[in-house]
Amino acid sequence: MYKKIIAIKSFSLLLVLGTACLVTANQAIAQAAATPYAKMAPIEQYLIADRDAEIALARSAAPESISRDADVMVLGRHGFETAVKGKNGFVCIVARGWTSAADADFWNPKVRVPMCFNAPAARSYLVRVIKETEWGLEGRTQAQMTEAIPAALAKKELPLMEPGAMCYMMGKQGYGGDVAPHWPAHLMFFFSDIDPAIWGANLPGSPIVAIADPTEHLTQFVIPTQKWADGTESLATEVHKMKAN
Fold this sequence. Notes:
single chain; alpha+beta; 8-stranded mixed beta sheet; 9 helices; 33% helix; globular; disordered N terminus
């Protein structure tokens, strides 16, 4: 299996397992096996014709108090471009399948994942997302990206993570792909080559999920939130209540 953006891809699969009361792991595996996305679709299918709709979807990643003053980037034919200039250092986007979906949904043109990065993440992690999106629009395969990312890091064409880098992923209107359509609201924190044990991640009872990828010098910590950005209860809270009952 390719290691393209292994942290995000592994996370999407973990969420499938973690919300088994809604989508079982067996169903997810069956969907992945039957995926029709064997090659790139026409570029137009990855774009959102209504620019205002994409801006609104991007802003939905974070609470309005944050996203209303953020930069917003939208996807064009050659990559992300700034549509709205903000003033608080945050940058909101709608990520596509090349960077924010499981392997089976790599070419899925329906993937729409709202993300809102703080300034340190915008200067580090988002730079990777932007570059990998450009590669995706060029038609690069998973295998080609797998090779390109470590090479770009070695040449310092892509940055390591800045201290404090994080993003909000609290929008409930996005689509993570056929394998993991609707992710629970959560926050993500980005580090370069840090041991997940430092945060007590992945231990029984711990609310923190961590995925480390030494090839990409990247560790991501995932923390679920109780509410979506609009203030309504998130999937994580709903699942917890169902288990309690």
